Amino acid sequence: MSARNGAASVRPRTRKVKTELQRLAEHPDAVVRRNVANHPKVSPAILQQLAADPEAIVRQRVAENPNTPFDVILQLLNDPEDSVRCCLAAHPYLPPDMFLQLTFVTWNQSNKDSRWEVVDIDHTPPDVLQQLAAHPDEVVRVGVAGHPDTPPDVLRQLADAPEARIRQFVAGNSSTPLAVLQQLVSDSDEIVRSGVAESSDTPPALLLQLASDPSGAVRWGVAKNPGTPPAVLLRLASDPDECVRWGVAGNPATPPAVLLQLASDPVENVRSDVAENPGTPPAVLLQLASDPVENVRREVAKNPNTPPEVLAVLVMDLHHDVQKVAQKVFRKRRRARRPLPA
């Protein structure tokens, strides 16, 4: 077939698709019209028509479609439905000034959940985030504090906000400068210090400091942080707060010797997390396979490090749920070992 004939054969199919989309845009079922609005080949004319659809689920897809004409974007900017305006905020070609206008319209007309969604959009421009940092609504400022594209200067400003929730989100932001984290380690509110303790960007020196925090919630954040040094995890494994020990038990960075210690913890949830931890060595899993609590034995059965001989014992466990899980894992492993047919 020549290139000319090939192109000629494509054009009728394209026209057929557009004609079919035009027909379906009039369909009585809103789900069908929504799918039309979401179609990559839908024409600007059909999108303009569907922008006035009585069903919000249809207008949402129009708002998100990259082919939606600029005049339709302007129309949807003042849509009465929160959900439609939030979808419009996710439009890849929405200019920054319109994004800012949309945010303030949403703040004035919508509920808090919708306001949060608007600020949580991935592609929010940094200059817009800088302006939103002074927004009168706390929900919007919290969204700015947690946004990965918020400029460091803005995060420094928000670290001094009177609202602990905003400071907490600054603490957990991967873009927060080290100097700000050092400031927030001594914050008066435990939820802010917890935010620092749980952040994957918190350096070991600050985690060491927070490991002695009077708040169990803060120490728990340190205990479950994969960046916490082994020596600190060893210390926290003897913490009087069971939630802290629970955090250490589930931490993939916890050394085997510490997991062995926690395998004898009096609290069931701690032992269960040791059994679930992917770093737990086979010898510890063997010990936990005879734990008196069925939930612990079930987690042993699911652990990929559990030796076949231990799994074989759990297949015969007296508790039906443990048996069932162990049998399922056993069959799965056997299928994985089976050679493929030639």
Written account of the structure:
- By secondary structure, the protein is mostly helical.
- Among the domains are: 12-94; 280-342, no CATH class.
- Helix content is 64%, strand content 0%.
- Helix 22 (294-302) packs parallel to helix 24.
Binned, the helix content reads: 55-70%
List the uncertain runs: 1-11, 107-112
Number of strands: 0
The SS-based structural class is mainly alpha
Report how far apart the termini are.
Answer: 39 Å
Strand content: under 5%
Number of discrete helical segments: 24
Specify the biggest β-sheet. none
Mean pLDDT: 86
Order of helices and strands: HHHHHHHHHHHHHHHHHHHHHHHH
Calculate Rg over CA atoms. Answer: 28 Å
**What overall geometry do the principal axes of the alpha carbons give?**
flat
Descriptors for this entry?
342 residues; mainly alpha; 0% strand; 24 helices
Topology:
Blueprint: H1 3-24, H2 30-37, H3 44-50, H4 56-64, H5 70-76, H6 82-89, H7 96-109, H8 112-119, H9 126-132, H10 138-146, H11 152-158, H12 164-171, H13 178-184, H14 190-198, H15 204-210, H16 216-223, H17 230-236, H18 242-250, H19 256-262, H20 268-276, H21 282-288, H22 294-302, H23 308-314, H24 320-337
Helix pairs in contact: 2-4, 4-6, 6-7, 6-8, 7-8, 7-9, 8-10, 10-12, 12-14, 14-16, 16-18, 18-20, 20-22, 22-24, 23-24
Write a brief caption for the model.
This protein has helices at residues 3-24, 30-37, 44-50, 56-64, 70-76, 82-89, 96-109, 112-119, 126-132, 138-146, 152-158, 164-171, 178-184, 190-198, 204-210, 216-223, 230-236, 242-250, 256-262, 268-276, 282-288, 294-302, 308-314, 320-337. With 342 residues, the protein is mainly α.
